[in-house]
Amino acid sequence: MAESEPGQDPIEEDARLSSLQQRLRQAHHKEKVRKGAPQDGHDDNYRLGNRVLAELIGGIAGGALVGWVIDRLAGTSPWALLVMLFFGIIVAFRNIIRISNRRSK
């Protein structure tokens, strides 16, 4: 062999490797599509909706629970339950209005 000639012939790319690389690219693409790219603002809106729902349910349930306990202890059934349920609804809506009036970042 002469010094200008390489010692070995260059190895051609194996068809199996290129096929594997192509399948990996397709799998990565499918996984990105399946997971979905996070979109700005959508996660914040989802959290805000969950918070509003929690305030509403919590206010009503909390008022009803406190009213029921007062009724059981004082024997004023169903008046304390109704009054505290009403207060719970008022507090829940007040909190929801506060949340909706906040300025977004």
UniProtKB/TrEMBL annotation:
GO annotations of cellular component type: proton-transporting ATP synthase complex
Keyword field contains Methyltransferase: no
Lineage: superkingdom: Bacteria
Official protein name in the record: ATP synthase protein I
Residues spanning the membrane: 52-70, 76-97
Family, per entry: Belongs to the bacterial AtpI family.
Signal peptide (UniProt feature, chain positions): none
Functional summary from the UniProt entry: A possible function for this protein is to guide the assembly of the membrane sector of the ATPase enzyme complex.
An individual GO BP term: proton transmembrane transport
Organism: Sphingomonas cavernae
UniProt KW keywords: Hydrogen ion transport, Ion transport, Membrane, Transmembrane, Transmembrane helix, Transport
